[in-house]
Amino acid sequence: MTAKRPRGRPAIPREVQRQRLIDAALRAIQKSHYEKVSVSQIVREAGMSSRSFYDHFVSKEDLVAELVREQGRHLMGNLEQIFRETKDDRERADRAMRAYLELFPVGTVDLERLGGEAGQRVREVRQKYVVALTELVLRQYERAFERGAVPRVPARAAIELVLTGIEGLSFRYYSEGRREELLGLHPVLLLTFLRALQ
Fold first, then answer.
1. What angle do CA 71, 74, 79 make, to 5 degrees?
2. Rounded to the nearest 5°, which phi and psi values hold at 115?
3. Which domains does the chain have, with CATH numbers?
4. How far is CA 20 from CA 59, 76, 97, in A?
5. Which of 48, 42, 61 is nearest to 16 (CA)?
6. Alpha-carbon separation of residue 75 from 26, 126, 147 (angstroms)
7. How far apart are CA 146 and CA 149, in angstroms?
8. Does position 181 have pLDDT exceeding 80, yes or no?
9. pTM higher than 0.70, yes or no?
């Protein structure tokens, strides 16, 4: 007696489903304005069902909070790689600023207006990554100071203040659909960052 082969497609692992939804949401939001994107468009883009969506996320806003978290992890990974690979301090700062400006999530979402629990989660994630970025920048300044490349290590609060300002400006430009204009500000923002921390 032979065993029957299961019918239909094999089950997609839960983590793969979640990632497919996240990737599909990012694509859908990049094609259209966030406010116009529906859960049905996201699941259609992912090739999945609405039931699958709600197995992973409470709402579209919940998914946006996860997008912000994922992009933050990706940004931190990129910055750590830049800091490992790049020896010249000026080039390192230039590459890091460009990565920071280019890797923002969900560009057409006004994250400042995102309310409810999802809005709170986004604020917490953003705050967490500003703290992580502050630590990363502080370590770089400490190493540069030890080599004699900079005259002093800036205060942690100064680094956090500058990063928070750039982060807020960046999210505003992205939410207004002004990504290219923001990227054009790269030299000015880099110079402002470096001068503010001298």
1. 125
2. -105, -170
3. 12-57 (1.10.10.60), 59-196 (1.10.357)
4. 16, 22, 29
5. 48
6. 16, 12, 26
7. 8
8. yes
9. yes
How many other CB atoms sit within 10 Å of the CB of residue 67?
A: 20
3-class secondary structure, 7: coil
Instruction: Indicate whether 156 pLDDT > 90.
Output: yes
CA angle centred on 56, ends 53 and 60, rounded to 5°: 60
With beta carbons less than 8 A apart as the criterion, state whether 79 and 136 touch: yes
pLDDT, tens only, 41-52: 999 999 998 898
Categorize the per-residue pLDDT at 56 as very low, low, confident or very high, splitting at 50, 70 and 90. Answer: very high
Per-residue confidence (pLDDT) for residue 102, from 0 to 100: 80
Query: In whole angstroms, what is the distance from residue 26 CA to residue 112 CA?
Result: 18
Rounded Cα distance between 135 and 114, Å, is 27
Q: What is the pLDDT of residue 106?
A: 47
**How big is the chain, counted in residues?**
198
State which amino acid sits at residue 50: S
pLDDT in tens, 136-149: 899 989 998 999 98
Residue with tokens 């002093």: 152
Asked whether 140 and 153 are in contact (CB, 8 A), the reply is no
- Residue at 128: amino acid letter: K
- Distance of CA 16 to CAs 67, 164, 195, Å? 15, 33, 44
Among 14-18, 96-100, 184-188, the range with the most confident prediction by mean pLDDT is: 184-188
